[in-house]
Automatic annotation (TrEMBL):
Pfam families: HTH_5. It comes from Candidatus Sedimenticola endophacoides. InterPro entries: ArsR-like_HTH, HTH_ArsR_DNA-bd_dom, Metal_resp_trans_reg, WH-like_DNA-bd_sf, WH_DNA-bd_sf. The keyword NADP does not apply. The keyword Metal-binding does not apply. Keywords: DNA-binding, Transcription, Transcription regulation. This is Transcriptional regulator. PANTHER family: ARSENICAL RESISTANCE OPERON REPRESSOR ARSR-RELATED (PTHR43132:SF2). It comes from the Bacteria. Coiled coil: none annotated. Residues 9-103 form the HTH arsR-type domain. One of its GO terms (molecular function) is DNA binding.
Amino acid sequence: MNEPSEPEIPNEDTTLTANALKAMAHPLRWKILCSLGDDELSVGEIVEKTGTSQSNISQHLEQLRNKNIVTSRKEANRIYYRIRNGQLLTLIGTMRTVLCPANLDDRFPPGDE
C-alpha cells in the first residue's frame, strides 16, 4: 500500500516561518508582544508596560514589523502598534500558555498550576 505523502513545504515558507519565530523569541520582543495582547498601544504605552527605553522599544518594534508580526499606524505625532492578525494573536496566546514558566520549570510537576 502506498501511504499518503506529506505535502511538500517550499523552503521559502519554512524560512519565513523560522525568521518570524526567531524574531518573537527575543525576551524583550516577547515582552512587547505579551504587552500588546489584543490591544493597540502607542510606543509610549509599550515603554511604560515593558520598563525599557523608547529607543530600545522602537528598534525591537521595527524588527517585529519587518517580519510582519505587528502592524503600525500613525495618528498625529504618535505611532500605534498591534499584533497583525487574529491568527498570530491566537498563536502568541497559545505559546504563552504552553511555554509559561510554570510549564517549563521542573519544580512544578505537570498539572500543579
